[in-house]
Design a protein that fits this description.
Helices cover 68% and strands 0% of the residues. By secondary structure, it is an all-alpha fold. The N and C termini lie far apart (42 Å). It has 4 helices and no strands.
């Protein structure tokens, strides 16, 4: 029979997200909104200045944003959040 205290601890630790995870999810959410609907990021997205600029550019070029901008966005995000 499983030890209930260990099962609960495992479940709780699986739900913990690091700051890096949250930043990446916010970035990807902002990028997806820019790509799919042309929505510009907001200060609440907590992007770095260069990531904010490139995601804004992608939103402004929606729906014809070049695929190289998307690659640049990921590279910039990685640079700002090593």
């Amino acid at each position: 029979m499983p030890d209930a205290s260990r099962v609960g601890a495992t479940t709780a630790s699986a739900n913990v997200h690091t700051g890096a995870d949250l930043l990446r999810r916010r970035f990807e959410r902002a990028l997806t909104a820019a790509l799919t609907a042309g929505h510009r990021p907001t200060a609440g997205d907590h992007l770095g200045s260069r990531a904010f600029e490139i995601v804004t550019r992608i939103a402004d070029e929606h729906p014809e944003a070049d695929h190289r901008l998307i690659i640049d966005a990921y590279n910039i995000f990685r640079t700002e959040n090593p």
